[in-house]
Each structure stands twice: as C-alpha cells, then as structure tokens.
Specification:
Low-confidence stretches: none
Distance between the termini: 34 Å
Number of helices: 21
Radius of gyration: 28 Å
Bound molecules: arginine
Number of strands: 13
Shape: globular
Length: 575
Amino acid sequence: MTDPQIVLTERVQQALANAFGSEYADADPLIRPSQFADFQANVAMSLGKRLRRAPREVAQAIADQLADFPGTVEVSGPGFLNITLDPAWITAEATEMLADPRTGIGTATPPQRVVIDYSAPNAAKEMHVGHLRTTIVGDAMARIYEHLGSTVVRQNHLGDWGTPFGMLIEHLLDIGEEAAVAQLEAGQGTEYYQAARAKFDSDESFKTRSRQRVTTLQSGDPETMRLWHVFMEATIRYFNKVYEMLGVTLTDADIAGESMYNSMLEKTCEDLEAMGVAVMSEGALCLFPPGFTGSDDKPLPLIIRKSDGGYGYASTDMAAIRYRVDDLKADRILYVVGADQALHFRMVFAAAEQAGWLPDSVSAEHVQIGMMLGKDGRRFKTRSGESVKLMELLQEAVDRAGVIIADRGYDEETKGEIAHAVGMGAVKYADLSISHDSEYVFDFDRMLNFAGNTGPYMQYATARIRSIFRKAGVEPESARGPIVLGVPAERALALHLLGFGAVVDQVAALVEPHRLSAFLFETASLFSTFYEECPVLKEGVDAETRASRLALCALTLRVLETGLELLGVPVPDRM
Ligand code: ARG
C-alpha cells in the first residue's frame, strides 16, 4: 500500500498506541493535505480533550514517537502536526509503482461475487438517456470490480414481459414479421409501440385479440412464444448496436430480463405467503415490510400478485433478489437504476430481509441514478417533446467531435476513429465525472469542451504525454527512471500519483466512480504544471534529469490510461 495518507494513518495510529496505550490504536489520526507541509494530522486537538492535556503537549508526544519517520514531523499552532515526507521515500515508492504491472492497484481481499444490475432498457419503448446513464455507470463499476479480482455477474434486467406484449405481438402480425423486425432493429420501438397503442385504444377487435394474446403468451403457447422471440431478438439487436457504439462490456449472455423470472413467480408468492410475510389485502397478495407507511399513516403495500392474478414489477424483483443470493451466490448486489425507484428498492430489500432471503452477509444496494435534464432544467426531451433517441444522440456526439478535429490533418479513417473515441469519451465521462445520483444538464458544448473536467481534456492529456515519447523516440514502457525529485512540481505530481490504488479501492467500496474521475483530473492538472515548469526533452537537460522526468511522464500516462480504461472511456493514441 503506497498511498501516503494510508501509510501515515497507520504510522500515527502506531504512535498513538505507543504514547497513550493500545486503546488509542484505532483513533482516526485525521490526516489531511496541508498548506504548510505534505500533510497535517489534527488528532491532538480532539485527543487533548479526552486526555485532559494541552493539545500541543499531546502533539509533541505523538511526534516523539515518530522519530524514525521518513520525513519531518513538526508541532505547529495550537497542536497540529505538520508532516513532510522525505523525497527519498516518495521516490522509492514512485519507482516501485512504475515497476508494478498493476500500477499500485491492489486486489480485493477476499475477492467478492458482485452482481450488477444495470442498463435494463425496456423493449417496446425507445431506450432513452436515462438508460444511457445506468449503462455507463454500471459498466464502469463492472470493469473496476473485475480489475480488483472480484467476480462480476452482469444482469441486464430487460423489460421484456407484461400485458403490453399482447398488443405488440398482434401488431407484429398485422404489419408482418419482416416490417416489424426492420422497424425494431432500426430503434423505432417507440413508434412501433405508439402504433400498437393507437389501434388498441380505437379498435375493439384489436383490443380483444390483444387481450387473448396476453393469455396465450402467459400459457406458453409455442407459436406465440415464437412471435415474442422474433420481437425480442430484433429489439435486442438494436440494444446491441447502442452497446457497441458505447463500447460497453454487456453481451447477450448478461441478459436476464423480467421474462426469465416468470416460472419462479408462483412459487415466490406461495413461499412468501406460507411464511406469513405476504398477506391478502383487498384481493391482492401484498408485502408490508415494516417501517413503510403512506400519507395516511397506513402500512404501505408492495403488491406481488394483483387481484386479477397478474404479476408485476415487484413480483419479479422479489424472485430476482432470491435468485441472485441463492443461485448467483452474490456477496454484493448493486442495482444501478434511476433514483425515482428508491422507494421500490427500499421496500424490496426490506421485504427480502424479512423473508430471510437477504442474509446479513449479502449487501443489496440501490445505486441511484439522477435524472438527465435538458437545458430548460426539465427532463431531457427533444424540441417536439418526445424523449430523445439514444442512437441519434450518440451519433451527434461523434459528428460534433468530428467537426472539432476536422482540420488536424488526419486521414479519413484516423479522423473517424478519433471522432468516435472523443464523442463517446465525452458522453461517458460526463456521466462519470459527477456523482451518480445528482441530476445534470445534458449539454454537448460542455462535455465536448477540451478544457475542464471533461472526456476530451482527459484524452488530450494522455495524447500529449504519448507525443512527448514519440518526440523522444522512447517507448513509455522503457522509461524506468530512476526518479529524482528536484522542483516542487515534480514532488507534487509524484506524491499525488501514489494515491491511485487507494482511490480505486474507495471507488469500489463506495460505488462512486466520480472520485476516480476527480483523481484523474487532478493528475492531469498537476502534470500540466509539471510540464510547464520542468523541461523534459529540451537541450541542456542532463541525462539523469531527463530519465527521471520521462519516468514521471510514463507513470502519469499509466495512471491516466489505466484509470480511463477502468471508467470505460476510450483513449486514442493521438488527437
Ligand atoms: N427496466 C427498468 C426501467 O427501465 C429498470 C429495471 C431495473 N432493475 C430491476 N431489478 N428492477 O425502469
């Protein structure tokens, strides 16, 4: 573990135990970055009260225990400890990190089985920008846990079942399979749905046929199932186009849609009822997890079987949570889903706990995805008021990126590749650079800006370092140092880079990918300052300094590229 803040925490805790007894060994030393040193420890201030001693005296007692510390420890002001690390320590750690194929990233101990429910668009409706965000955030987390050595089970909980499928299948028969497939593959699910809906509302015989079709579908009639498959496969081919465009890791093997749980629903209800967790209320089978009340102070129901015998979203989620714990053997289940479903998931988790289906050893977490807003501050829509087509939106990002790099002298093919990487990088990074639960305005101009905490800026930072190596005629992999720290900009950069592994751990623990983005952005900023102040290839730079600075460039490049890869943001070689 090279993160200086963690190393320091451990050292100061040891000092606390030595000075005041083992009961102080796990007090938080409150290590923070400092204006006056590398770090400061603020623990003496609060500990002074507890020990009834002057904080300065307490601070001095801690400092005395740190006599062999690789750096200087000074008591300052009313009782702060200012800590400055030895450059030799930083250098040694940075050089070790450069030699480490994992660039300071550890492995999860013990490795976990993490089930991640993400993306989950609905068939028969256009995949919209809200699904874009759950897809991007979920995929970044999947990459991160896998990189840490955990086993990730992706679950794409497609909306692929329910009463609307009666009319969707009848509409398919009306317009013909071929025409239906073409329309669905082209991503016109919304239009398809609307056409079916219009007939359902105006044509009595269509309505009757559709209702009958729901019954034959539920009974598993082979021809109806075949038609359902035709419909779903065309829809999934469109989803896959979106996934491919985005470069997300979801495959058909990860599809575990609502339909998959059909055969489990009856037993799910039976078992819950037998346990007494589910009870009949006004003709419906309901769960009443403790602690949930409606506006009238009455217990709030989670309906798992409607009075007409039908199952719904909640029934499926009860079956799914049991399946994920028992069959998928999850240690941790993440539901990367819109924040507006928070109550639903709290109730599902509480009911599953009540039923004993969610043991303490397994954590179920709703990773809330904030709403995507338009420039008017309302839910993101096109001018005509419909929800925006995802594929068109993604294509627009690529086209705009193409315009930005148009006059950089690349041939058509290279230009196409860079535009794709910049466009997708911009859209993805925008989702990953702010906390997943905050609402934000979808704004191409901001996300495609080459300055600020954006995808293109991060990509540009890596491309710039790659170009330094091209100019030097050296491969980044062969830059080994040794690293020597002369000026403050070098020191600040090296010290910061050492925190990489700890940030990745933190992101995995908290499910907060934006912390990694923030770390990478700070990396790029510190690199800029370093590069302004520290010539690398200029004539007159001696061989030792040049080798050290190239090594710092290489380490920065590795951190940026690894970090962006973990986020799923593509990194073009040049821009
Ligand atoms: N299809 C749902 C939607 O678009 C999301 C499903 C999330 N996963 C779940 N297990 N409920 O809102």
